[in-house]
Amino acid sequence: MRTVKEYVMEEPSLPPAQGEEEHISLALANSSITLPGGHTVDLLATPAQANHWLTARGLAPVDAGMLEMCTTQLRSLREQIRSLLASRTAGLPALPAAVTAVNDAMTRVPTAALLHWDDQRGPYRATPHPTTAIVEHALAALAADAAELLTGPDADRLTACGSTPCNRYLLRHGRRHWCSTRCGDRARAARAYARRARPGVE
User: What pLDDT, on a 0 to 100 scale, did the predictor assign at position 199?
Assistant: First the structure.
């Protein structure tokens, strides 16, 4: 727990991008953040950090005991989802491997409430969720959300942040194409500087 607390203090002070609260897959895609000056912050860099990220979104208990292998799976799904978001925003065909990865994650675990029979209380239904499959269930939820984002009504609002070097995605709100006020201010400052650097050019 100590490691998690120390890590939380190191997270960049950026608010969630527009749409992250509605779509956990968008938050996953934005969990590796490129900052000015060539710095990158990976919110899933270690198992403890990945466990904290999942717990904060209700996808894993605090004491899930994430392993490096599980964290690697989560980062891998993130890259596949980022690939799909990039294809969608650019209007390009998706990489088949990315589509397969999302479908595999969705179908790896049963989502139906299966029938069980208890000697004391009789028949009942429950969705299997053994502690050994916490990561698989989290991946399935993230993949299903990505599929919904890409095919649902929010898909047309999906865009990449328009402020270099930011690599986050967001859902447009009006004319806003920036993931945060900070990125918007930086983009406007860059445009103003470019105008000043080209005298006589409107």
Answer: 59
Spatial separation of the C-alpha atoms in residues 152 and 14, rounded to whole Å: 27
- pLDDT reported for residue 134: 87
Mean pLDDT for the stretch of residues 106-120 = 81
Q: How far apart are CA 78 and CA 86, in angstroms?
A: 12
- CA 32 to CA 50: how far, in whole Å? 12
Nearest CA among 172, 176, 186, 169 for reference residue 31: 169
d(CA 145, CA 22): 9
Residue 9 backbone zone (phi > 0: left; psi -120 to 50: alpha; other: beta) = alpha
Dihedral pair phi/psi, residue 194, rounded to 5° = -65, -40
The residue assigned the tokens 């865009």 is: 159
Cα–Cα dist 159/31, whole Å:
16
* Residue 123, CA distances (Å) to 113, 119, 142 in order: 12, 9, 31
38 Cβ contact list (under 8 Å, min separation 6): 165
